[in-house]
Amino acid sequence: MITFAYAIYLTVTIGLTIWVARTLSKNGEVFLVECFGHDEVLARSTNHLLVVGFYLMNLGFILLTLQFGTEPTTMPEAIRFLSSKIGLAVVVLGAMHFFNMNAIAKFGRKVASWLREGQIAVHPVPASPPR
Question: Which DSSP category does 118 fall into?
């Protein structure tokens, strides 16, 4: 029963992590471009670094939590085991998302202020070739 529960836990949580990371990356790039004064190269690079950090933090958390909890021996125990572990992983994914958004928003406000005050200038950067 425990091997079955671990397999489901890892499949669901790693799948969720990948889906959330891709969704945030795809939809967050526009936000980052705006935050970084329309510097698309910097926004793309920052977006990639955020995704890597997101994967490292969440996958590390998922793997570390394998050791916690009472191992299930019955199907009802396995359902409770999975719901608590997956629920905790989802809460951590959400917390990471809000932490990242807060940090980016604060930084974006600083960059916008610097641009308005002329403390930094935006220089056109040639677009990189498509991947």
Answer: T
Residue 126, domain member (yes or no): no
The tally of domains found in the chain comes to 1
Please state at what angle helix 40-64 crosses helix 75-117, rounded to 10 degrees.
150
Which token pair is 47? 């977006």
Q: Distance between CA atoms of 43 and 29, rounded to whole angstroms? A: 7
Residues 47-79: tens digit of each pLDDT: 898 889 889 988 999 999 888 888 888 899 999
From residue 11, alpha-carbon distances to 62, 83, 89 in Å are 11, 13, 12
pLDDT, tens digit (0-9, with 9 covering 90-100), for 9-20: 999 999 999 998
Range of the domain at 28: 2-117
Is 16 inside a domain boundary? yes
Spatial distance between the Cα atoms of 35 and 21, rounded to a whole number of angstroms: 19
Q: Which residue has the tokens 């029963």?
A: 1
The model's pTM = 0.70
- DSSP, collapsed to helix, strand or coil, labels residue 128 as coil
Q: Is residue 131 part of a domain?
A: no
